Structures are given as C-alpha cells and as structure tokens.
C-alpha cells in the first residue's frame, strides 16, 4: 500500500501561490491594484495609461484612418465595444495630448427580432443605449434588423475606394498637412470647432429619431424575419446568417451616411474564438480578412479592429475600474449549451483551455497575425462573379479539378444516389459540378435498358411547360456560405435584395456566354440532320 504520510511526506512539492507585488512594475511607487498576467502588475494610473497607449499605438502603427475621415463605431452594448467607444471619447477630448483626428459616429443593430425578444424588451434596451450615446454627443444610428428586408441589391457590390490604392506613409502625411491649416482656422473661429460640429450632429440625430426618419418596423417585417430564421435548421447556420445580415446593415448605413471606415469591437479573445470557428465552418481562405486589423473587401468602406490587442480580462478590469457603462442584451446564443453550435463549442473550448493555460488566447491570436490570403487582392476591377454573394469574399470554390473541394463534391454526389443505376459503374465518377443522378436522370427512360434521350412531353427538359427555374445560389457562394444555405428549408425566405442580386448575376453570366449557345431553331434542326 502507498504510505505517503510515512515515507514521502517530506519530499512532496507544495504548490506555491504567487504573491502580489506591492509596487507597480511601471512607476515603482504606487501600490498594485491588479495583475494582468505573470509579471504585469499595475497600479490604477499606470494601467489606464497602458490601456490608452495600446489603443493609440494600434491606430498609429497601421495608419489606415486618415485625418478628417468619418468613422462609424459599431457598438453592441457589450464590454469590448463599450470600451472602444470610451477610448474614442478619450482620444477626442480636449485634454488628450495627441488627439484623434477623425469624426466619429455610432451604430447599433437591434437584433431582438431574431433572438425572440418582445417589443418591450427591445425598446428598453434601445433606451438604455440611447442614454449612453447621447452622453457622447456623437451622431448615432439605431438600426433594426428588420430593415435588412428592404435593403437595395447594391449593398452586395464592392464600391470604389477614394484613392484606389492602399494608404501609404506619404499619403497619410499629406492628409495631416492638409488638416493643419483647417485646425488653425478652427482655432481662430471657435464656432467652427469639431466639438460644436459633433454637438450639432448629435442634435440632428436626436431630431431624426424623434421625427421618425428612421424607418419604423412593422409586425409584418418582424414576422418575415422570424420566418427567415425559422427556415434555418441548425444554430450554427443561424449565427452565421445573423452575422452576414448584420454586416450588410452596417455597410449600407456607412455608405448612405458617408462613412469610409467602420470600427468593430472584436477583442483578442473574440478573434481567437473566431479564428478556430471559421476554420471549422470552412472559411479558411478568408481568415486573413476576417481576423486582421483591416478588412478592405468592400472597397469604399474598410472595416478596422482596433481592440484586437486587448484580452477580455483587460477589458473587464478597465470597465470595472473606470465605470464604463455597458448594456447586456441577450442574443441567439444566450443560455445555450456548449454543444449547441460550432461557435458556442469553440468559445467554451478556448475559454476553459485559457483557464488552465493562460497563453492559449495569445498563441492563437499571434498565429492569426501571420496569416495572409492566397487569393488575389480584392478591388473594384474584380468581377462580381469571382466574389461570394453573401460575404463578398473571393470564391474559394473555383479550384483545379484535383482538389479536396472537388473530392468533397464527388463524395456528396455519390452519397445522394439512391443506388447504382444502369449508367453507373464502380470506378467512374461524375464530372465536378454535374447534378446528382437522382435529378440528372429524371428525363431518361429506363425501359428496355436503353436511353430514349430527353422526354418531349410535359415536364421534360425540352418541354415548354416545365416548371420555372429557381435562382441558383450555389454557384455564387463560397464554401462556407454554401453550408449555411444548405441548412435552409426555404430559400424564398431570404431577403429580396439577395435573390435579386443572384438573378442579376446569373443573367450577366448568361449574356457573357450567349454567343456560344444554340438558338431554339438550331437546337430543333440538329436531330433532323442526324436523322434521329
């Protein structure tokens, strides 16, 4: 038997509890109030300076936001986006040593219609957020998710950027030099100051909300939105579809209101979870744009993530210590089990692993920084047929014949066969992109074991009385978006702007190949020439 107490008691290693340093590691004077990680013990003042400097350094290092630009802050009410709003306020305040030089605006997407909230709960959440937005004196937009049903199809097109080229150091310096005389003029005329302009924009925003300029939602719109999400079978596809629709609303608002940049509040912890979940969802080809600092896929509107260096622990400490207001709003994954969706399972896995191994999130995050897309850069000259209809990323489905994706397609086609038909022999595979046998063989007769060709009766492929064709979305989507649409039971529940853009792209593709297609008269004359 094991005799621990008698023989090994003196040799057992005891776990040493780390002791909190009494002095701050930065100023060496004040008492430590928190420890971010091992060796990083800060006092209250030094932690605030560290937090603010990291935000300024992220913007200054990338130099994507130019002086005088209109920047839209996407605020959901959570800790990360609320902290981002606080950092922008800090950078635009009069006491800031190096003030930020852009004009901010705020947008909030009300997703209560998709998560099943009542109208009273949604109004209560909007009222709480409006009180926070009014205190900033920034122009804000309250957009309901139901408004996605009335978006124009142009939101799916990539706009032309202002310069057409990526920003460089010389262009950034030129923008700063152009801003200096403007600032001197504002100092001579206080009535033209940025603060007064922001206050004026805030007043206009309040008048717009009171006058009902923002389109009100109707019960019909809410029911249509519920019908859309009810047609999606899995929670994984629902969360992915909700993210896509949210991005479309933010993009449309930015374009209509003249914003050229959009700030998202994705933290380091959130991006680590997003990286692993996107790989599981088949978005490996677009990881660089989905998790990087800047996302220029839309052309005229660039999405930036200035909070990507902050962990959720740092954000929670900062909000608690400096009373940053945040509003909890339940979403689709609220009170969901760990295995409810791929996104929820990945979040649970990373969070629990981070508890035992504190370097988990930082390791995943540093890996995402090294990712670069292998696809050609997206610009306005890229054809729309080379971009996904929903996420506007480069299509990763137009690959060579011998690839893992084509092998997946062939396996899917073979699994859809009800049984080996007369024309199916082991060792032969269907051509990539061809329809499965269950649908491709509907127009062939199996009588006598000979194919009789196309049926000319009702319902045949050459019959004029065949059913109208539905819009083909599969060929216009990337691999991940195909999986999302595949989980839908009714495609007609999609917003009309998606269906209209899909039909327009299909028509454009038909026009491009129209000269290679046979007319109906030539098609009917071919059997007579061959004597069949």
TrEMBL record:
Residues 425-443 have a biased composition (Low complexity). Pathway: tRNA modification; 5-methoxycarbonylmethyl-2-thiouridine-tRNA biosynthesis. GO terms for cellular component: cytosol. Transmembrane segments: none annotated. Residues 414-451 are annotated as: Disordered. GO terms for molecular function: nucleotidyltransferase activity; sulfurtransferase activity; tRNA binding. Coiled coil: none annotated. It is found in: Cytoplasm. Its main location: cytoplasm. GO terms for biological process: protein urmylation; tRNA wobble position uridine thiolation. PANTHER family: CYTOPLASMIC TRNA 2-THIOLATION PROTEIN 2. Plays a central role in 2-thiolation of mcm(5)S(2)U at tRNA wobble positions of tRNA(Lys), tRNA(Glu) and tRNA(Gln). May act by forming a heterodimer with CTU1/ATPBD3 that ligates sulfur from thiocarboxylated URM1 onto the uridine of tRNAs at wobble position. Belongs to the CTU2/NCS2 family. This is Cytoplasmic tRNA 2-thiolation protein 2. It comes from Oncorhynchus tshawytscha. The lineage of its organism: Eukaryota, Metazoa, Chordata, Craniata, Vertebrata.
